[in-house]
Design a protein that fits this description.
Chain lengths: 470, 470
């Protein structure tokens, strides 16, 4: 049976693009090290038509199809045991950049940083920015509704997508590739597929928004007296600048300690280690904000410096460094972007991706840290946060490598999050790793409606089965 | 059978809130005058629980339920012949305004202008703004994903909604009332119900975003040499201000003529009538943009005046008036906001609501106006456009009041729109009036997927049946 399928796929895609046995090796490990795939084959179709034909063949044989792109996901969403792993890597064309309309037409296998470069060459920017941008692809970013550091200003991937092309479970191609900012012609199908992690269909292409390229950045690392004081800074900067804060990232003292242990070459920002360290960046897109004054400073840097100085005088900020060059700016960002690497270098690790209302971040961290010693006296934590979005990546290194123990700790995180009106899944998605949280924390009516939609669009349950829903 | 249902509803809601016979009168006419409803009864439930119980009763009796709110829709979306008209008008509480989190928690029957007032009292703004704001309610705005004049800066209703409560076809309540900016816990159900015009469930409450209240406006009416020149103005202002253009509205000479005929009291902006008249407004949310300089002018007004002066020198702008007071600003807006009134005062009228890529607006208008005399030599047109969104409300007054004739004209509009990558439904929705367009212009796979979802969530086809889909 599966030999028939493989023969048909080989005829369809060519032998070089149906990988079996040892040829699959590069595709099996998960970036996090928590999962290993064992696909029947890894497929590398050339285009949407081949993907549609592949999905039809798989459906005829009752074999699951799991789309993969850059494989930088953190929740095991691209794993399969025995299904077909369908890589969109060959759909890697930037079909069009239309500067006047400020859109790009891209295929699912385009690497984020390639799109960043292409947009920049047109004097524009694609403002989806995270550590894995050198490998992550558009298809995965859309399928997981990826977030990152610039959500505060530009929204998640969902907000950046105008049009979409999807291969459905029965091989039909759903063409929603419009470049319109307004379109009320029926249900919002696009947003149903974005963030569905390939469980409703395979995203093959998209029309995405481009934005004016910031002409200059004002970037600083600072230590605040407390998290609420840091939020005061965010609100003051947003108000003073008219919403030009592009990133507002929180790194606690535990993060700085672990950074120094893992990467002593990088260095901490301050001689004294502080509890609340913030990386803040404003982006000037208007000439009047980006043109240096007679003193050589851009107006946004002056605005940032003045706000920081005022708050230091008030005692709300303890220390601050404003980047004076692009290399200083890059160094500040490197410190933040090593988070995933230093988190997953240690094992066992329990990683979480929670979001809370902004004013509930500090109460959450306090409540959980007060509770943790009772659950595991040896546990240590490491967090970073997109504080401007209320999104915390709290990692726990537990005292023992026991699955039930880890689950008790995760359940405690969820409980505190739920109590404060938050979510257990902010930007990484659900995949396999958040499925238990999904089952026990998600509103049961919402779960039932999701299952109804899944059943309607994928009645054979062959599209990335077992992810998000059971 | 229907007497049993009415008796049960009367017991549930109280006799004062089950209107039959002549008591229904106020609810029967459609705002456009094109449709008249004939409901079995008009219901006025008090809360979500009563709506859920009502929907359950209706489902048990197999009777359709059509939600209505402010009844200012333009596509006949709230009509029913023999079904239950369920008004959400009594769910009219603003439950909470949370200034720190910049959200409001509102019920479906809250009138837009009430929310505007409440937000303003908290020094914030709810930036959904259109002519019918004094009657239109949140529930209808969400169900139609309403647009309006500020979409350019703040997005459509969809973009302003963080959380939602929906009564499903079987009476279950779907509680998605979160206030989070990031939440990837499964499928994006919220956006499926927004814009679904009540065909998948009844929206009963929402968490909506509030934004910083503009502290000052820079507003002008101007005549451009051509539509492309007007777009040059828009792009220059966006670039110079960093995206602070809140509205960019187009009124052609035909609009000015009709305005003068219908409302001679209002007056035209210029002594000479020009082909391309634009109302532009920038909003200053940052103190540095809103604080008057030594000359008393706010920086954004200076920016606007300088840009206009430069373009007049280049010959791209022919005449311009910058509002020097709030009353001058209001007068400029009144001229634009009379559009619906003067369009629907004349009969027969064919109203359309199309959107195009920004650079395709002028080619569309040219192509259609070249084609129209061949279809109807007596036809006249009247358009206004949210030009910054590519959204044109092109109305045609045909030479004869014949349905087949009107449909031929609509089909010609659709053809030109489709050829240029646009949509036949931008911000008003589909309802009844755009159903023929939906059937012949919407991608057939998209239509089939919508029908699959409708079937899954409303298998009895009782939720606003016959709207959007057949």
């Amino acid at each position: 049976m599966s030999q028939d399928l493989l023969a048909a796929l080989t005829e369809l895609l060519g032998p070089a693009h149906v990988l079996t046995g040892a040829d699959r090796a590069a595709y099996l490990p998960d970036w996090t090290g928590h999962y290993t795939a064992d696909p029947l084959a890894v497929l590398r179709p050339a285009d949407t038509a081949q993907i549609a034909a592949t999905v039809k063949l798989a459906a005829a044989h009752g074999v699951p199809v799991v789309p993969v792109s850059g494989r930088t996901g953190l929740v095991g969403g691209a794993m399969t045991q025995g299904g077909l792993m369908l890589s969109v890597e060959r759909l890697n064309r930037i079909r069009d950049i239309r500067p006047a309309a400020r859109v790009a037409v891209v295929e699912a296998g385009v690497i984020l940083s390639s799109l960043h470069d292409a947009a920049e060459a047109a004097d524009l920017s694609f403002p989806l920015w995270f550590g894995a941008r050198g490998s992550a692809m558009i298809g995965g970013a859309l399928s997981t509704n990826a977030g990152g550091s610039n959500v505060l200003r530009y929204g998640s991937t969902r907000a950046l997508c105008l049009g979409l092309e999807v291969v459905l479970a029965d091989g039909r191609v759903l063409d929603l590739m419009s470049a319109l900012h307004k379109d009320n012609s029926g249900y919002d199908l696009k947003d149903l597929f974005i963030g569905a992690e390939g469980t409703l269909g395979i995203i093959t292409a998209a029309v995405v928004k481009l934005v004016p390229r910031p002409r200059a950045y004002a970037t600083a690392t600072l230590a605040a007296r407390s998290l609420p004081d840091a939020l005061t800074l965010l609100n003051r900067l947003q108000s003073a600048s008219g919403g030009m804060v592009e990133a507002f990232e929180f790194m606690p003292d535990t993060y700085m300690r672990r950074l120094t242990e893992a990467r002593p070459d990088v260095g901490e920002p301050f001689a004294t280690r502080h509890a609340v360290n913030i990386l803040v960046e404003l982006g000037a897109t208007a000439p009047r904000d980006a043109t240096p004054g007679p003193d050589g400073a851009i107006p946004l840097t002056t605005l940032l410096e003045d706000t920081l100085a005022q708050m230091m005088e008030e005692g709300l900020i303890l220390e601050a460094q404003v980047a004076q060059s692009e290399s200083q700016r890059r160094a500040m960002w490197q410190r933040r972007e090593l988070a995933a690497e230093i988190t997953f270098a240690r094992s066992p690790v329990i990683d979480t991706d929670v979001a809370l209302p902004l004013d509930a971040v500090a109460p959450f961290l306090e409540a959980f840290h007060a509770r943790l010693p009772g659950l595991d006296p040896q546990a240590e934590t490491l967090s970073v946060a997109h504080l401007g979005d209320g999104n915390i990546h709290l990692s726990i290194f537990p005292g023992s490598d026991d699955a039930a123990h880890a689950d008790r700790i995760v359940a405690a995180v969820e409980e505190e999050v739920q109590r404060l009106g938050g979510t257990f899944s902010a930007e990484h998605g659900v995949g396999l790793s958040k499925k238990p949280s999904m089952a026990r924390r998600k509103n049961p009516v919402a779960l039932a409606v999701m299952a109804q939609i899944k059943q309607a669009l994928d009645p054979q349950n062959l599209m990335n089965p077992g992810k998000i829903l059971s």
